[in-house]
Write a structure and sequence with these properties.
Largest interface: A-B, 43 and 44 residues
Number of strands of chain A: 12
Oligomer: heterodimer
Mean pLDDT of chain B: 97
Radius of gyration of chain B: 16 Å
Order of helices and strands of chain B: EHEEEEHEEEE
Largest sheet of chain A: 9 strands, mixed
Structural class of chain B: mainly beta
Shape of chain B: globular
CATH topology of the largest domain in chain A: Peroxisomal Thiolase, Chain A, domain 1
Strand content of chain B: 35-45%
Number of domains of chain B: 1
Mean pLDDT of chain A: 95
CATH superfamily of the largest domain in chain A: Thiolase/Chalcone synthase
Largest sheet of chain B: 5 strands, antiparallel
Radius of gyration of chain A: 20 Å
CATH architecture of the largest domain in chain A: 3-Layer(aba) Sandwich
Order of helices and strands of chain A: EHEHEHEEHHHHEEEHEHEHHHHEE
CATH class of the largest domain in chain A: Alpha Beta
Number of helices of chain A: 13
Distance between the termini of chain B: 23 Å
Low-confidence stretches of chain A: none
Strand order of the largest sheet of chain A: 3-2-4-8-1-9-12-11-10
Strand order of the largest sheet of chain B: 7-6-5-8-9
Amino acid sequence: MVSNTGWMRNQEGLGLWEHRGKVAIVGWGQSHIDRRWDGVSLDRSCGGLTKEACLKAIADAGLSLDDIDGLITSAETRAEQTWAPRPYFDPPYDTEDGLTFTSADWIQRELGMKNVQYRVSDAPYIGPMMGLAAQAVGDGLCETALVWYPMVNLAGRYGHNNPQNNSDEAPGPSAFTLPWGYQSGAMFNNLVIFQQYCKKYGKSHDGLADLCLNLRRNGLMTPWSYYALHEPYQLTREDYLNGRVIEEPLVIYDCDRPVNTCAAFIFTTAERAKDLRQKPAYVLNHAQNGGRGRSTMATLEEHQEAVASLARKMWEGSGLGPDDVDIFNPYDGYLTFTQQFLEGFQWHGVKWGEAHDFYADDIRVEGPHPFLSSGGNNGTGRTRACLFSDSLEQLRGTAGPRQVTTRNDTALAGCNTPDSNGFLMLSKHPD
Amino acid sequence: MSTIPGLERPGPVPNDMTRPFWDACNERRLVLQNCTACQRLHYPPAQRCDQCGSADNFQWKEVEGKGHIDVYMVIRDSRIRGFRSAQPINFAVITLDEDPGINFLSNLPGTPPGEVPVGAPVELIFEETSTGQLVHEWQVVT
């Protein structure tokens, strides 16, 4: 169990990461993706999809089940509700475990893994979880870790079944937000900050259209993505500008679409990676942010400082700098905060307030600035894992029509929001 | 109830730390934690001062209810039950004049949705929630 955050690299001044280049990602698997679980098909339940993704990742790495000695996952699947009090199914689908999350014990039992010595079922969401996995392998807690991240979407409108949103009471910290209609930090606080951004730099919501359209384009070039499989058509600028308004100015196309899926990754030591099937993607550093602003709403200035600090931590731990990052896949769960990462890391020289102009330039994968080559979560559906899997594919040179034409030696990926996230620096080269 | 038609705000549930704040609201007063060592206001209430780290120097301080509208958005598709019947509804961030680093949320009662005068001065009012607990709100100074 993860009882503390001591493994995190969430402070400046920690120096070069002690395991820089000594840990690698060597396998990846993506399950089928649906909009929702139908509540009936157990092979498409959280557990069923997790098994599919894990087996694919192990096969991708050229490993066997017996090679896995570490299991790491997160219970943060965004299910927003649980299955009860409706009836459960026969074992192993007779509890929430396997339906709305999939624990290490569950997957070990279901897949029959015999050599597991390290299990974590309460890792944070995928951004920091990937850092935890790298640190665990580097620290020798396990040699070869299977790491999976399910996203669960059940019946009903997203968030409407969340008990907090249907109560007459606002307990705990929500007492200072819920009575005014605040419902999600990622959505609301970041939209507030987006409005501050537009006010400060003279920008407007329309400036996100080019990013949105390019993400959908990249997502349609991702064969497993929700949109490639289920809604295989491109958005138009008119679609975006006339999108259904959720919280003005936020429109539906700014929001990544909840889906039901799972992705899995294999982390191992650089030594073990030498003989495996895939070209290793070496981990040069991991870094995290966690914090909040001074008052009810964090401000633009607080988030800009947060991402600037994140960038400093990443440069310090990896030994790289802004000019060294070839592939950049930061979170786009709401398009309104993505510019903070772009500007904070100064990718391709973008400075504060310049992101919208950058989006209007050539950000296609074929072009000189292939930002979010994954298609992000707006282009593939809210997997979050696409940020990492595209980074792997770009480094391997297996991204197919999404393969960038620029240098592809290093990749920086992470999520979630500017003030709360985990990022990973990957490279083809260990040093 | 709220002066905004259809709005049913969830009622804050006080705890040991926040009870003085909510009790003051029920007396139509706005009080914030003040670290007397740092002379620094805190909102929402905190366990300890974010500057000196001490919990020993907190005192509740009544503040003058004057602020300005920083930015706003309009809720049109809320996930929160009590807001679905009131949308569209303004959602604004108010900075406190005594310390602009402190900000509050507001639905700006009396201001039509989307017609928010950014930068305008606002003053403190109180509104009733679903449980009867009063909450602090802000309205544009006319």
